[in-house]
Prior knowledge:
By secondary structure, chain A is an alpha/beta fold. Chain A has a single domain (2-80, 157-267), classed as Rossmann fold (3-Layer(aba) Sandwich). Chain A is 38% helix and 22% strand. Chain A has helices spanning 43-51, 96-107, 112-125, 141-153, 171-188, 199-205, 239-267; strands spanning 2-10, 17-26, 32-36, 58-63, 66-69, 81-84, 159-163, 191-195, 208-212, 219-224. Chain A has a 6-stranded mixed sheet, sandwiched between helices. A 4-stranded antiparallel sheet of chain A has the order 2-1-4-5, covered by helices on one side. By secondary structure, chain B is mainly alpha-helical. Chain B starts with a helix and ends with a helix. Classes of the chains: A alpha/beta, B mainly alpha.
Amino acid sequence: MSIRSVGKIYDPEGVHVVALKDCSLEIAAGEFVAIVGPSGCGKSTLLNTIAGFDGLTSGEILLDGEPLATVDKDPSPGPDRVVVFQHGALFPWKTVLENVTYGPVVQGAMTEEEANTRAREMLSRVGLNDIETAYPGQLSSGMQRRVEIIRALINNPKVLLLDEPFRAMDTVTKSASHQYLLELYDATGKTIFFITHDLEEAIFLADKVLVMTTRPGYIKKTLQVNLPRPRQYSMLASEEFLAMKAQLVEAVHEEAVKAFEAGEREMA
Amino acid sequence: MNPYIVLGLLLMAALAVGAWQQKKKALLYEISWGHQIRKTLTSKSFLLQLGGFVAFILTWEVTVKTLGLPWFNRLPGPWECLLEWLSPDPAYGISIYTEDYYTHILYSTYRATTAFVLATLLGVPMGLLMGWSRKFYDYSYPLVELIRPIPPLAWVPLAILILPGDEPAVIFVTFLVAFFVTALNTLLGVESIDESYFRAARCLGADKRRLLFDVVLPGAMPFIFTGLQISMGAAWFSLVAGEMIAAQYGLGFLIWDSYSLIQYPVIVIGMATLGVIGWISSAAVRSVGRKLMAWRERELFGA
């Protein structure tokens, strides 16, 4: 996937907000890319333009060489780029199984029975075999997120877009979630675009960590993570890991300070 | 049959219903039935509920009969009304043994139900459409907001002029109130749906029509049912008002007619009947809602 000098200007009621400016990045097939940056820096805007929820005002986004979004092309979301949302968006009125099979059935890609079989298979792979008739409200947040990722993966998307999916979790749930996401990634080899503000999480999960600037957002720094896969928790304490974290801390801190000062100016 | 025997039978029936509900609860908590009944009968909340009833009846009896306070002394006492209601040979012609009593109930129930069903069939789609299409919202909302505050009774003369006869007119004013309540609650329900459900559904390949059935309708359901409960109540109150003005049968007519004929206990019988029917109809709407929204029930109370 190529993102080429993408710009996004919001103009609600005359307030000119440049969310993205000349934002470019390349994601290879099967690559796990994490984007970090201060809150409000445009990470989610970038994700929304890739997902097709928002249009862009300059540049273009290509997926497998095909234009996905350009200035003239109205954005449209699709099952080739499924999003997993920050606060979770499993349909609370559908059971786990109905949620997971929703995509393939609604697209007409599978019959209901095929989808059910496939869904059961995938759910049991992440240890969720007994909950298919449960409603999302009955599950823990960790289980909900697992189901949501399965709901995305069953569509066999070209890229999985994760918008701070583990943000609201406690440490234990979070590290368990990292574990199964990594397992799924190693098993499926999907391209993953992962937004977070947790630097350790970004390094631990990704092949490449991109630091985004505060508004107007573009990619300021690219960090290649050379830790071997499968990733182990012991790596979190390795010198290599800590050195990378130090680099990121510095880069992000600069942006955070800028964002804070910009905020102060806006207030004044 | 002697009214005292009937009273006894009614009380026993009430106890049986109460016990049956306690049995369901006992099953839920996995304790014995007898224990659950004892627990409920001695619970603070039950005693307070009972206390409320007793205090109400006592105040009524004392102010109206014992003290006979000015203004109150023309009213019938609770005992007098109860005996009249249960009497096989009622002094004013209305009791649980008379056919007329049930004719009035049937007429009112028929009108309220018709109006409620019509209001639901038209109000829910109206609300969904308003929440669904920005254009339709702009087109209709100001008009709705302008017409809605007009009290139902103000519509009666026009309704009688437009519609053939009193019967459709009474149903129309009843319908109107219920319709607005349902439509606006449905609209509110659609607006309450989190944007990410729409986005998720679109990601997964849903088109506009699927969004309507898979996200908008189920997402708005909790608000729709709150609306339907209010609409049921609203239907009853505007119905009774309508019946007082333009009807030959029905509980509203009965109450007003009894006032004109100085048959005061019948007024109370009519009012109490309305209370019971209103309560039953709300409970019915609630239980349908619970069945349709199993997901919510389980979310709120666990599996």
